[in-house]
Amino acid sequence: xxxxxxxxxxxxxxxITGGSRGLGxxxxxxxxxxxxxxxxVGRDGESLARTAAEIGARGREAWPITADAGTxxxxxxxxxxxxxxxxxxxxxxxxxxxxxxxxxxxxPLEVWSALMDLNLTATxxxxxxxxxxxxxxxxxxxxxNVASISGLIANRGVGGRHYETAKAAVVQFTRAVAADWAxxxxxxxxxxxxxxxxxxxxxxxxxxxxxxxxxxxxIPMGDFGQPEDLGPLAVYLASEASRYxxxxxxxxxxxxxxx
Length: 259
Description:
The chain is an alpha/beta fold. It has helices spanning 22-33, 45-57, 72-85, 109-137, 162-181, 199-207, 209-217, 231-238, and strands at 13-17, 37-42, 62-66, 90-93, 141-146, 186-193, 249-252.
């Protein structure tokens, strides 16, 4: 098979959480451009509709599902709605976020629990339900978990250690499930983004610019990543090109974690 053909995703279907904006949108568009249809999950119907239209403009079909996948009930409902549409070949567990900066000693248990659901439990549920359906079909599949370099380091000048904790757990969850499923044709890999100027980080830049400035100064390549930088990596992990890769945690951070 010619090398570029190994990146094609014709006839495949993607399920992605948080797929209407930011990094999720760019990954969804890239995978659609490679030939796959897309089931998009998000909380905002308008942004879902816009991204679905962009996928349609690329000649692929899109099904938007409005749901809060950061809650266990919303996540399970979205998965079951997607599976009712037909088989899923590619899963991207993308939702997550720090959302608040709060010292650990001041963080209420209910806030910790809700943010662990957002950053970790949703990944478990989607992998169990969507990934489990791949196992049942017996035709292989791809699971891509979006973790963070925060799963490897502690971010300076910001609170909310639920984020580092959950993202580190996502990395180890990726490795453990990859080991379990390696002989069954479903690969499980993780992407660990560094600083990307998505909407949440644009908000941090407005509210606490000193944190963003300090972060940028520590990036060897000198700048933040752009959301579209993630698309080619997602296509690789979703495609036949990554056939022999599983359990990997791929850092894309402009060199931030080198120092």
